[in-house]
Specification:
Blueprint (H helix, E strand, L loop, with lengths): L1 H27 L9 E5 L4 E5 L8 E3 L4 H31 L7 H7 L2 H4 L9 H10 L15 E2 L5 E2 L2 H12 L4 E3 L3 E3 L3 E3 L3 E5 L4 E8 L5 H16 L8 E5 L8 H12 L2
Parallel strand pairs: 10-11
Antiparallel strand pairs: 1-2, 2-3, 4-5, 6-9, 7-8, 9-10
């Protein structure tokens, strides 16, 4: 419920700013709605006519030399309708924010005592249930070459391929972000690939893939992985949405502060 209220409050603030902008535009209009006119536009001829509604008066043609009059009236009508739409939405938001409903459907099960929870299979999985189910799905990792003698280990004792991947994995774990290491996915043009990390934004129940490109000063490596990232995006997995890409070179190591910011932005909001 708190997430919903936060979204509604953000939307409310956006609408209030829009309302303030409309009020500023109203103040700059010379036409104030009195006497009241309506503009009719002849789209075929691109001509403008004004008429006083509710009267028997005939429409008056507005020449191009007097087009500012039509512009003022049309703008006034537009701003009025925008104000009405905004005020209606604000009223709807306020009704929800001021409602006395204690729990959202997602929160109600967890509000019950543990003994009652044990008697019930919830309609909506709790976050803990969802994470547990997601992590329990079996998958086959890429595996390591027999001749690879490196042994990089995370705090979970997972074997990874570099010191930077240790840092990424440990930071995800420290921030309580569920993840899978080298979980396979299928991409057109590449077939089965193994992203470095597949992480879960629990709040949004959204999967985010993570590729760490650790040798971008190697021309062949850079070319290969540029193609790989492009294929991700051809398959609807976009950088900044459901794909995180971190890069480093021998002269520019992994930026830890950037790493934490990426996790906070993409996986904890």
């Amino acid at each position: 419920m708190e997430n919903i209220k936060a979204l509604l409050n953000n939307r409310r603030n956006e609408l209030i700013k829009l309302r303030q902008e409309i009020e500023k535009r109203f103040s700059k209009l010379k036409y104030k709605g009195n006497p009241q006119y309506r503009v009719r536009i002849s789209a075929r001829k691109n001509q403008f006519y004004v008429k006083m509604p509710g009267t028997d008066s005939k429409e008056k043609y507005i020449s191009k030399n007097n087009i500012e009059k039509a512009r003022q009236i049309a703008t006034y009508d537009y701003l009025n309708e925008m104000m009405r739409i905004i005020d209606t939405e604000l009223q709807q938001i306020d009704r929800i924010l001021n409602s006395k409903q204690k729990y959202s459907p997602e929160e109600y099960y967890e509000s019950l005592c543990p003994a009652r929870q044990n008697l019930i299979t919830p309609v909506i999985q709790t976050d803990n249930q969802f994470v547990k189910s997601w992590l329990a799905q079996p998958y086959e990792q890429k595996g390591f070459d027999f001749n690879d003698q490196t042994d990089f280990r995370t705090i979970k004792n997972e074997r990874v391929r570099s010191k930077s991947e240790i840092i990424i994995a440990n930071t995800l774990e420290r921030k309580h972000v569920p993840y899978k290491y080298e979980c396979p996915i299928y991409l057109k043009e590449l077939g089965i690939i193994h992203p470095d990390f597949t992480a879960l934004n629990v709040k949004r129940r959204k999967i985010v893939y993570w590729e760490h490109l650790g040798k971008m000063d190697d021309e062949g490596y850079a070319r290969k992985n540029t193609f790989r990232i492009n294929v991700y995006q051809k398959n609807g997995i976009f950088i900044g949405d459901n794909l995180i890409v971190t890069v480093e070179t021998s002269a520019m190591p992994l930026d830890i502060r950037l790493l934490e910011s990426l996790i906070d932005h993409h996986l904890l909001q």
